C-alpha cells in the first residue's frame, strides 16, 4: 500500500492523477503496477485510464531504469559528427535498443536532442558525465567503467518489494 504517498491528497479526486503519478515516480524512478493499482482505488479511476495517461506523457516511465543511464546525443551537431555510429555501437555492445534497459539492468540506453555541448560533438552522457568527441573505439572502455558501479535502483527495488 502506498498510503504515505496519498496522505497529501483527498480521496476520490481524479484531478490529482498527474501529481500522484509524479510523486510515485519521484520515489521509485518509475511507475510500479502496484502503485498504479493503489492510485486507481484511491481516486476512483479505472486502471486502464491511468495507464492511458501514464503512457501519453513522456515524463512517465512504466519500467525501472538501469543502474547507469547512457544518453547519446542525436542533435544536429552530434549527428553530423557521427552520433548514429555511436548509438549503433552501443546498441550492439549492450544488446538493447535506444529506450530500453539491458536484461541485467546495468544500463539504460536513451537518445536525447541537443545535450548542450555541441562544441565537443559527438557527445555521450553517462550518469551526468560527459564524453565529448567520442568514438566507437571509446565505447568498451566507457561501458567497463560503469558496469561495476551501482546506484539507488537496487534500493528502490528492495523498497518496492517490501511494500507489496
Ligand atoms: S547536438 Fe549534441 S550536444 Fe548539441
How many helix segments? 8
Stretches where pLDDT is under 50 for at least 5 consecutive residues are none
Q: Work out the number of β strands.
A: 4
Briefly note the CATH topology name of the largest domain: Glutaredoxin
What percent of the residues sit in helical stretches (DSSP H or I)? 40-55%
**Cα radius of gyration in angstroms:** 18 Å
What's the CATH first level of the largest domain?
Alpha Beta
Distance between the termini: 7 Å
The description of the largest β-sheet is: 4 strands, mixed
Order of helices and strands: HHHHEHHEEEHH
Walk me through the structure.
- It is a single chain.
- The protein has 164 residues and is of the alpha+beta class.
- It folds into two domains: 54 residues, Orthogonal Bundle (Arc Repressor Mutant, subunit A), CATH 1.10.10.1590; 80 residues, Glutaredoxin (3-Layer(aba) Sandwich), CATH 3.40.30.10.
- It contains eight helices and four strands, in the order H-H-H-H-E-H-H-E-E-E-H-H.
- A four-stranded mixed sheet has the order 2-1-3-4, with helices on one face.
- Helix 2 runs antiparallel to helix 3.
- The longest helix is centred in the N-terminal third of the chain and has 12 residues.
- The radius of gyration is 18 Å and the shape is elongated.
- It binds FE2/S2 (inorganic) cluster (FES).
- FE2/S2 (inorganic) cluster binds next to helix 5.
